[in-house]
Amino acid sequence: MAVPQAFLLGPLHEPAGGLMEPQPCPRSLAEGFLEEELRLNAELSQLQFSEPVGIIYNPVEYAWEPHRNYVTRYCQGPKEVLFLGMNPGPFGMAQTGVPFGEVNVVRDWLGIGGPVLTPPQEHPKRPVLGLECPQSEANRGWETVAKERLNELGLLPLLTK
């Protein structure tokens, strides 16, 4: 669909038939973040690796829906802290598309959902099962500490709505 270059305005703004240049639509913080993330992801996809690297998991590509859902829900308004990166274990972002996102926390506590596709290449010992993955990261203490701190700050109720 072509985007019109000018919009016809009604009689309250200008005489009928008058044209006005369109104003850019303000995008949300989440939309801007996702757009920049996709741009950077395209640059990263050009990197070439030699042995022993044989398989690269890119959950921003194959787990896009839960990733987008997470960013859209939680990337609103000004932030004091921004976590960048991913949980390097095979049962975090590799499964969920959510940074530092262990499967149970993402699915059950944050309420993030969406299809997780199969990556182009999978290691036979590290299949991507998405939000149905029965395994979890060994360090479950992080979840408890995070919930306690969020509760102290009064933020836990905001996240669980």
TrEMBL record:
Protein name: Single-strand-selective monofunctional uracil-DNA glycosylase 1
Gene Ontology terms, MF aspect: DNA binding; oxidized pyrimidine nucleobase lesion DNA N-glycosylase activity; single-strand selective uracil DNA N-glycosylase activity
Keywords: DNA damage, DNA repair, DNA-binding, Hydrolase
GO biological process, one term: base-excision repair
